[in-house]
Amino acid sequence: MMISIIIPVYKVEDFIGSCLNSVCQQTYSEIEVILVDDCSPDRSMAVAEPFICELKKKFPVKVIRHEKNKGLSAARNTGVMNSLGDYLFFLDSDDELPKNAMLSFVACLQKFGNVDFLIGNAEVIGDFCCKRFTEEMLLTTNEQIVDKYISEDLYVMAWGKLIKRSFFLEKDLWFIEGLLHEDEYFSFRLMIYSSTAVIVKDYVYKYVVRHSGSITATKGKKNYVDYLRIITLKIDLMLREATYQKEPKIYSFFVSVLYGFTTYVIETECLRLNEKAMMLQEVRTLKDNLKQFKKRRSLQDSVKKWIINIAAFTYYIIIKVRS
């Protein structure tokens, strides 16, 4: 069973060596490595060259260069388009793999069969919390998978997951290019469309939190604009799926998501007052659209909706007074 490890490369000259070395040390042999140079302006590819030579002694290696910088989503899509593996694995070039990562995945595939995707534990270095899986588990229905997702038992990052390539293509799971927080919408669609999955209790990823330089580290207004778009896309997708409209837990999930985004908008210094007001009005509109979902009587949901309404109204009044 062939696994395609897809590695976008952009401004990681200090980390790419460790990343590729961890791939070279994999104990599973049926791997192809696909590096996508997203026009990195530093010495990332020069630093990578000797490691690529070592990788070629063990695995087939493809190096693809974009004609211009296109972003993380485009780099991942390019990797998928050039892959031949039965399963896909996305590895950020400033992170690393435990040496038995791919072997752990394959052992579960041999035990449980060719599921749509597998997800394993991640060792996190830095100020980020990632829930730990303590037991191996086969999920055989979409309801089980969605329940795990909305309960925040399954992390939203694209990494740490082994995804069946034929499933990825069939469900059109391409990353949206030019969008920050692309992992959020990708993982959401992965959960919504999949019917079988395996939780792997072994560590399959080493995630190092960075605050500057790499593809995923930029912060600013676009973060909030894009994240609101992702929330909108998620709600629109669920509104097209009649099955989920009957689930009160889906309603509560989105109320919590909108409430959380409301607090982020209020607290941030990246947005001007009028920008906050516009976003909070959009959040309130999205909240009103949730009426198509079945809801349950919940004081917690009611309080969150009240805060969303008050926040939108307050900023609207402030803007009116100032104008």
Strand order of the largest sheet: 3-2-1-4-7-5-8-6
CATH homologous superfamily assignment of the largest domain: Spore Coat Polysaccharide Biosynthesis Protein SpsA, Chain A
Number of helices: 12
| Strand segment tally | 8
| Average predicted local confidence, pLDDT | 92
Order of helical and strand elements: EHEHEHEHEEHEHHEHHHHH
Work out the count of structural domains.
2
Radius of gyration: 21 Å
Class from helix and strand fractions: alpha/beta
| Unreliable stretches | 213-218
How much β-strand is present in the residues?
15-25%
What's the architecture of the largest domain, going by CATH?
Alpha-Beta Complex
Written description of the protein model:
This protein folds into two domains: 214 residues, Spore Coat Polysaccharide Biosynthesis Protein SpsA, Chain A (Alpha-Beta Complex), CATH 3.90.550.10; 104 residues, no CATH class. The longest helix is centred in the C-terminal third of the chain and has 24 residues. Helix 2 links the parallel strand 2 and strand 3. The protein has 323 residues and is of the alpha/beta class. The chain is built from twelve helices and eight strands. It has an eight-stranded mixed beta sheet, sandwiched between helices.
